[in-house]
Amino acid sequence: MSVDSTIASLVERRAAILAAEPNLRARNLAEKLGISEAELVALGNEKSEVTRLRPEWNGIIGSVGALGRVMALTRNESVVHERKGVYGELEGGAHVGLIVGDDIDLRIFFTHWKFGFAVVERMEDGSLRRSLQFFDAHGTAIHKIYQTPEADADAFDALIERFATEASPVEVTARPAPKRALPDSEIDVAGFRAAWDALKDTHEFHGLINKFKVERLQGLRLAGEGRAARVPASSLRATLEAAKSGEVPIMVFVGNPGMIQIHTGPVDNLQPMGPWFNVMDEKFNLHLREDHIDSAWIVWKPTEDGTVTSLELFDKEGTLIATLFGKRKPGVPEDEAWRAIVNGLPEREAA
Questions:
Q1: Domains in the chain and their CATH numbers?
Q2: Structure confidence by residue, pLDDT tens digits, 102-148
Q3: pLDDT digits (tens, 9 = 90+) for 14-50
Q4: Burial of 185 from C-beta contacts in 10 A (0-12 / 13-18 / 19+)
Q5: Order of strands across the sheet with 349-350?
Q6: Quick one: which of 303, 300, 299, 271 has its CA closest to 287?
């Protein structure tokens, strides 16, 4: 089959699927077509103009602040995290970057970035919506940046023109099989627990996991009493509802291998819709598949500022879906109201 006939077949099948499910998200549409989302974007359509971007990720992200107020979107298989605001200064280096701000707060792992596109879509009302979309080598979405009504359209167009390159085939690679965890019997549990108790900062936790060669969920199972405890999968909803009613500001971390996006602030408009539990606030939207939560854990980490308490959610493969903390900054003890919410979750089960 020729390339043209393959494209024609994909376009025809896409039209049929969207006729039946017009509100289908791009990730799910790509899955139904049997292609990656990056390949779906590259396919284009009659209502959009797609421009391939040079892989100058630091330059592109470092220029996004000039666009004004935009919507940042990061997701994984189970959660979509959307935050509106202005991108601050990009810090870090070629491999790891960060943007720290009250509205846009990102931890960026550029080594996972492979494909970038600018998409200009004509909407139902005739207006244009611009976006920048980035994908890994497997064609899976890492991060997207959408124009809002307050954004500078001319600056958007100038950024697209500056980083545009000629289109080339999107050749994705198969995702490797997940690495098998070591058996519990091969883990130095006593050493792991002692090192956990010696933590000075939450950022040291990733190094702790790597040092003892434990998977994150495995580490919570082995942590022992006072370090981690399993709670019901319904704890996400209970935590968000309690944070809303108590007006307790929280932090919501959602990520994938190439990006972690953070919301800091209150949550208010909570909307369950089928399997999705949603936060639908003006600055912050969260869409989380509650049916993907296989286990939920309270985690207590010692720091120089006192204990830091989090709620961690995992899917059935043991992949981290999302993490919730109380609003905090280095040098400031944890919010007691947040600690009370999480420590008050019912049916706690010692790890």
A1: 36-88+113-165 (3.40.1570.10), 184-350 (3.40.1570.10)
A2: 999 999 999 999 999 999 999 888 899 999 999 999 999 999 999 99
A3: 989 988 998 888 889 999 999 999 999 998 888 889 9
A4: exposed
A5: 91-92, 96-99, 106-109, 259-265, 250-256, 320-326, 308-314, 295-301, 228-231, 349-350
A6: 271
| Dihedral angle, C-alpha 45, 274, 236, 248, nearest 10 ° | 80
Residue with tokens 């007691």: 336
Rounded to 5°, the CA angle 226-227-232 comes to 90
Write down the pLDDT at residue 3: 53
pTM greater than the 0.90 cutoff: yes
Q: What is the rounded CA–CA span in Å between residue 52 and residue 158?
A: 14
214 and 182 in contact (C-beta within 8 Å)? yes
Distance CA 287, CA 292 (A): 12
Report the alpha-carbon distance of residue 270 to residue 32 in Å, rounded: 30
Return the residue matching tokens 């990009």.
90
Residue with the two structure tokens 């359509």: 45
Q: Encoding tokens for residue 233? A: 């999968």
Q: Which two tokens stand for residue 60?
A: 């592109």
